[in-house]
Design brief:
heterodimer; A: about 240 residues; alpha+beta; four-stranded antiparallel β-sheet; two-stranded parallel sheet; 6 helices; about 20% strand; B: about 100 residues; mainly alpha; two-stranded antiparallel ribbon; about 5% strand; elongated
């Protein structure tokens, strides 16, 4: 409330000043300002939350005061309550540091959303090797080896509501790290009788790849050809 | 300008795609042993009227940089030498020199 009245008063003073003088030089307001305290790390740990109306600090500084330096540590892993799997997220990358950074980010996000997750589980690294001759033509004796490694991690999630998991996935997708691939597997709970849902067949057909109809088209055309051939040769048209 | 072999391959890919269903329908008739021989023979004659660039075996994987037809690393669609060049330049994500 106090902030609003203060700003209104400042606005009125400025308008009066612009109407009285025609110069383009802005003048410093002579009004007394509310004392602004600076953010000071020495105040840590705080006993009560910082007040943005009386203090001067950035959002990052504010966040750091909540639990000091929490982002550099492992997050708290919420305990599982029912052991119902809801999601697996696979991460893969050619670079381990990127993978570590992003899985760290993902675990902290899951902690903040209250999702019980596993630790980051490493999966076997996929290694592909190529050996090619160095030269464009012959000289097979001189060859060179190349490799590509795909490092993989997986995080499993349990017990969370599907909406919360969707938020988590959307958050990860929004802050996706270049060079890190993500594959999300989710399991949703559906009500009984979903099989008789009227549009289910239509949705299922819509998801199908159109190339799956090719064998059917071939069979139909084949039957047509057999039918035409069985009728005998077409007479000449004069 | 791509060379003649690359152009021929492009032509074959278009031709195969346009004629795939009709060709395979005639094959279905011609190889169906339960049908009378005359119908199967006619279907075979029809098959012979398709051009050479409608056969799927005409399609050949070629290097997309140099157009070379041999030594293709299919994952990248490159010939072995172009693969090496690009890998050394760091243009293929994650591929680097190895030794063991």
């Amino acid at each position: 409330m106090q902030v609003a009245t203060r700003s209104v008063r400042r606005y009125l003073a400025a308008s009066v000043r612009w109407s009285s003088t025609n110069t383009n030089v802005p003048q410093i307001s002579q009004e007394p300002k509310a004392p602004v305290r600076k953010y000071d790390p020495a105040m840590l740990p705080l006993t009560e939350p910082l007040d943005p109306t009386t203090m001067d600090f950035t959002e990052e500084q504010y966040a750091a005061t909540l639990i000091h330096g929490r982002s550099v540590h492992e997050p708290f892993f919420h305990p599982r309550t029912h052991d119902i799997p809801v999601a697996n997220i696979h991460f893969r990358s050619h670079h381990i540091p990127l993978l570590n950074l992003f899985t760290h980010f993902a675990t902290h996000a899951a902690y903040s959303l209250g999702i019980p997750i596993s630790k980051v589980v490493p999966l076997p690294t996929q290694r592909t090797l190529w050996t090619v001759p160095r030269s464009p033509f012959v000289h097979k004796k001189s060859q060179e080896n190349f490799e590509r490694k795909v490092h993989k991690r997986v995080i499993k999630a349990w017990d969370a509501d599907s909406e919360v998991v969707a938020h988590w996935v959307a958050y990860l997708r929004a802050h996706v790290l270049a060079g890190v691939g993500m594959r999300v597997i989710t399991w949703d709970r559906v009500p009984l009788g979903i099989g008789s849902y009227p549009n289910l067949a239509a949705i299922d057909n819509g998801l199908k790849n159109p190339s799956r109809n090719v064998p059917k088209q071939i069979a139909n055309l084949g039957k047509q050809i057999i039918k035409d051939e069985a009728q005998g040769p077409t007479p000449f048209q004069i | 300008m791509p060379n003649a072999r690359v152009l021929r391959d492009i032509k074959a890919r278009y031709g195969v795609r346009a004629n795939e269903i009709a060709r395979r329908a005639y094959l279905f008739v011609a190889r169906n042993e339960t049908l009378p021989p005359q119908i199967r023979h006619h279907a075979q004659l029809q098959l012979n009227t398709f051009g050479r660039y409608t056969r799927p075996t005409t399609v050949k994987n070629r290097c997309r940089e140099s157009g070379k037809g041999r030594g293709i690393i299919s994952e990248f669609g490159l010939s072995r030498f172009q693969f090496r060049k690009k890998a050394l330049d760091g243009e293929l994500p994650g591929v680097h020199k190895a030794s063991w």
